[in-house]
UniProtKB/TrEMBL annotation:
Listed name of the protein: 3-dehydroquinate dehydratase
EC number(s) from the headed UniProt entry: 4.2.1.10
Catalysis performed (reactions): 3-dehydroquinate = 3-dehydroshikimate + H2O
Lineage: Bacteria, Bacillati, Actinomycetota, Actinomycetes, Kitasatosporales
GO terms of biological process kind: amino acid biosynthetic process; aromatic amino acid family biosynthetic process; chorismate biosynthetic process; quinate catabolic process
Molecular-function annotations in GO: 3-dehydroquinate dehydratase activity
Length: 145
């Protein structure tokens, strides 16, 4: 089963980016952990990252058309991108919103997610482990829709 792990802006800079907030694992390390766990779970995981809202929207269309489950860390797009939200709303398979940090424990502007209502569920605050929990949820037989 193919799964897309889609990352929004600035996540390509993991490791060097505010390590006190996002941890010391690099983006390459994130890709490795997701693909390795995927292999264990019998998932073919493809990890992507973009700083471009249009590209993220096109990837969500691709997932909708191919009925691919998605683990989505929309990063800052979370808080304002209605275009991305409307693309996510077209999903034809489970879509799990993830965050490394706990946005609710941070600045006010991070308390709103415009995607949350169209996601199957949200996992936030477990560091890189948020992605692992999401992949395990997708691999399991629990309801996600
Ligand atoms: C984030 C939280 C967002 O508020 C922030 O803009 C990010 C990363 C997280 O994974 O904790 O870029 O999505």
């Amino acid at each position: 089963r193919r799964v897309l792990v889609l990352n929004g802006p600035n996540l390509g800079r993991l490791g060097s980016r505010e390590p006190d907030v996002y941890g010391s694992t690099s983006y390459a390390g994130l890709v490795e952990r997701c693909t390795e766990l995927g292999r264990e779970l019998g998932l073919e995981v493809e990890v992507r990252e973009t700083n471009d809202e249009g590209e993220m929207i096109r990837w969500l269309h691709e997932a909708a058309d191919a009925s691919l489950p998605v683990v989505l860390n929309p990063a800052a797009f979370t808080h304002y991108s209605y275009g991305m939200r409307d693309a996510a709303a077209q999903r034809t398979a489970p879509l799990i919103e993830v965050h490394i940090s706990n946005p609710h424990a941070r600045e006010e502007f991070r308390h709103t997610s415009v995607v949350a209502a169209v996601a199957s569920g949200t996992i936030a605050g477990f560091g890189i482990g948020s992605y692992e929990l999401a992949l395990r949820a997708l691999a399991g037989d629990r309801p996600q829709d």
